[in-house]
Amino acid sequence: MTNDYIWRQIEALLANAADKAILMAPFIKKDVFQALLGAIPSTVAIQCVTRWSVAEIAAGVSDPEIAEIAAADGRASIMLCHHLHAKLYVADDRCLVGSANLTGKATGRVQPANMELLLEVPTSHPEVQRLIKAVTASAVAGTIALARQVREQADLLVSDEESPQILVPGEYERSTRWMPETRRPARLYGVYRGRHESINIDILAGIIRDLANLDIPPGLDENAFSLAVLSRLHEMPEIRQLLTVGRLNMGELQQELADSGDYTVDQARRSVETLAEWLRYFDQVHVVPLGPWEIRQGREIGD
Questions:
Q1: Which of 130, 135, 188, 258 lies most in the core, judged by the most C-beta atoms within 10 Å?
Q2: What radius of gyration do the chain's Cα atoms show?
Q3: Are 28 and 68 in contact (CB under 8 A)?
Q4: 58 and 166 in contact (C-beta within 8 Å)?
């Protein structure tokens, strides 16, 4: 087996497509994508399904610029499925399933090549059809405008000296000690959609770090975005007490952060205040004005 065996498998399959081709992989690099378009007959319609996240693009494992290549080609449509992990390559009634993404190392076009596996099965296989149906139901269009938004955010993340390490969502365990940075959560959605011309660069860097940690699918409307942020906040162990008993003692949380050694006293206070602002903005909570500083679920009477 030569080192580009995976590439030759995919290329041979797609070169024999007569009607329809599907390229489905979480990570797709533009040079591999361009090469595959060249291998597919000119009369074949091409559907490409992938996922874009700021952290993945910043890490260099995927290129949103495939949207521009697809538009120039004219045959290919780009769809995004945020939780995609499957790799599937379809040519009419035949397909390959396995582990290989459309990257240089995964396909063997760049050495040293990854150790990958692709097996041929009929497209009619029930599990293949289940996957295609599920992806089709949840995917959104990967437009050029959206591609440029996530690229810009990824470039900002790479240039941020306070981002110590870029990790790939889905390939690592989320940090249990992420705490929101931006003090004005109302700014998040605008930056998420590429609107940030009036925001100071230092503030913008913190918002980009927050968005990278939130790892929210691109292209959501504001309501869906807010629900996704709230879901991410509810995953945080720091606010578990709020969900289980309906209240959260912010003074105790501040002390816990300070005692962890990861925060100074001032940083712990600021982090707790910021978290409270996020909860007030995205959730139905209120601050108790007297006694222990607490966040409680529900609106205040009279709101």
A1: 188
A2: 23
A3: no
A4: yes
Q: Which two tokens stand for residue 253?
A: 């949380």
- Kindly report, residue by residue over 40-74, the tens digit of the pLDDT: 999 999 999 999 999 899 989 999 999 999 999 99
Quote the pTM value: 0.81
- Per-residue pLDDT reduced to its tens digit, 121-140: 999 999 999 999 999 999 99
What does the pLDDT read at residue 168?
53
What's the farthest any 2 CA atoms get from each other in the chain? 73
First to last CA, the chain: 69
DSSP state of 114: P
Q: Which two tokens stand for residue 98?
A: 């396995």
CA angle 180, 181, 187 (to 5 degrees): 95
Secondary structure of 38-72 as H, E, C letters: HHCCCCCEEEEEECCCHHHHHHCCCCCCHHHHHHH
Q: Which residues of 94-113 are buried (b: 16+ CB within 10 A; e: fewer)?
A: bbbbbebbbbbbbbbbbeeb
302 φ/ψ sector (left φ>0, alpha ψ -120 to 50, else beta): left
How many angstroms separate the CA atoms of 274 and 179, rounded? 8
Phi and psi at residue 220, to the nearest 5°: -80, 150
Distance CA 235, CA 210 (A): 15
d(CA 46, CA 184): 42
Which parts of the chain are beta strand (E)?
20-24, 45-50, 76-80, 87-91, 94-98, 118-122, 140-141, 247-249, 285-287, 294-297
Structure tokens at 176: 């249990």
Residue at token pair 């699918």: 217
